[in-house]
Amino acid sequence: MAFPSTECSSIDAIVSNGEPTSVDTVGMATMTSEQRKLLEEAVRRGADIASGVETKIVRYGRWLLASVFGGNPSEALDPKTRNAVWLALVRRAGGPKLPMSSRMLSVALRIAAWDRCIDDVTWRSLDAGRKELLLPLHDAELLARAAHHVSKFDLTHAKTTEYLAELRAAEGRRPVSRMTAPILIARIKRFRTGVASRAILKKVRRLRESLEPAQRTALAEEIDRVRADLVSLSRLLRTR
């Protein structure tokens, strides 16, 4: 089994949750002028890519809202929507024809819907990345107020996440994981394609020869546990 190299593993020691650590701060202080120029160029290129991606996501979300939901933000924000085109689109998410996750589809649509609902310049001028982090607030007034705070203090993504947690804690609401049928289907598809493809089976056959008996047993037992859990899920879903 392959393991990350030391060089790759060291990245986690430098950056945590998108925020520079003390290691990075020390590195900045000791940089040469050439290294600083290289850093500035890397930042510029990264910002250009991020801006381009966000612009496309925002445009796509607006198109989805207008064309798939007829410009109706309430229906677009309804987690129980029965919009046939939308549900079919979500089922295709993450596949070869639509290599975009169902989460990103949802984010694009919800940002567009809230943009239509919230008549606030600060909210609309906030970048899509930080809007996405605020979406769990699920309320136009709360979203607008949070956008003003995030914009006023120019919070990073990590700090915006901390701020959101504080808001929800103040309201007595803990962050919850929203499970929907499209999300569960997408997760199971990713799991199945990740472990049941022909390529994976070939790799496991080769790996088998190098495993110790105890390792084979442990792996087989873990697979049996997964199979038992999947059978339980299947029975639960089929029970009326």
Euclidean distance between termini CA atoms: 43 Å
What overall form do the CA principal axes indicate? extended
Into how many domains do the coordinates divide? 3
- What's the overall average pLDDT, rounded? 82
List segments where confidence is low: pLDDT < 50 over at least 5 consecutive residues: 1-23
Q: What sequence of helices (H) and strands (E) makes up the elements? A: HEEHHHHHHHHHHHH
Question: How does the helix and strand content classify structurally?
Answer: mainly alpha
Number of helices: 13
C-alpha Rg (nearest Å): 23 Å
Q: In which order are the strands of the major sheet placed?
A: 1-2
- Strand tally is 2
Strand content is under 5%
Largest sheet: 2 strands, antiparallel
Q: What proportion of the residues is helical, as a percent range?
A: over 70%
